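Pilot study result, target chain (389 residues):
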Amino acid sequence: MRFSADRPLNVQPATVRDYRELARRKLPRQLFDYADGGAYEEATMKANEADLEKVLLRQRVMRDVSVREQEIELLGQKLSMPAILGPVGLAGMFAQRAEVQAARAAEAIGIPFTESTVSICSIEEVAEATSVPPWFQLYVMRDRGYAEKLMARAEAVGSPVLMLTIDLAVVGARHRDTRNAMLDEPSTWAKVRRGLDLVSHPRWIREVALGGKPLTFGNLAEVVPGARTPEDFKEWVDAQFDPSVTWDDIAWVRENWKGKLVVKGVLDPEDARRAVEAGVDGLVVSNHGGRQLDAVPSTAAALPAVAEAVGGQTAVIADGGIRNGLDMVKMLALGAEAVILGRAWAWSVAAEGQAGVEKMLRVLRSDADVALALTGQNSVRDLDSSALV
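Predicted structure:
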């Protein structure tokens, strides 16, 4: 049998898209498609990138740009660059203890790492591996008692920010996962096909399946003991995601969380105003990377109106389609204070572990520095629509 999927790239990875290609070769297809894919026809996922590409930077010359700064203060924390590693579910299936590796990379660069509720590594494992506590992402669950326990665990390790994901009342249809029998009880043939997919990636088996054990949901051990498969994940999601949640539930979160509170999944200006009224400390303009409802606006398209609606009353963060430092600068010029990276770090950690994530972030920071210089800007804090054509 030829294990061609494990052949390395013939180029040194330098960009996020290079890391995506290397991850595609290293990961079993079912796992790569889970990370890479979107909902339905993936139109919104594609628009996240395409619409950012259409945003044009305004080149300015003969301005003193000898000093350029990317440091910001966000939600009481100092960041070396306006970026956050966002929550990525099942990330520990992409590389050996991937959440720990990514958190260490974030700490080395000087930005936050966000632990997902459905991470493979528990929040305690991530916190013990770093000197800077991670942020924690939480879903609104039907089992409010367990959600309160998760908040208490995050507080116990010193997490400064809770990121409440609010765009998962139900789960969008992700057709790649259906084709790969990732989230349904597989037929006999599907099991064979999935098995062949796995054995054709011996490096992944050695480094992750064997070397990365235990491949269980570290934060959910009490409620889904022994859970280790996509079917376990889907069963938990179907049972726990709560479609009855409203803005009134923010008060419940506030009763159980004393740190900073950010809501993730806002696309509409009216929802942004409701978030401000609910008293959140920040919001993330996001369509879940195009993984929920297809045919909704890209983040780049939605961001300016949302930022205008809140008018500086709360921190505005954005994610979706950011593949280089120029994209980061564009998002800031459109109204964000910082950006969240999801797939970018998932691909990088799958490709080259902690070193890959660190290199990806350094490249983004370097790209952004060039963009600042050639748009005549001295600081990311000064970016606004005047930096765009």
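One observation from the pilot: The chain has one domain: 11-380. A full batch analysis is planned for the follow-on phase.
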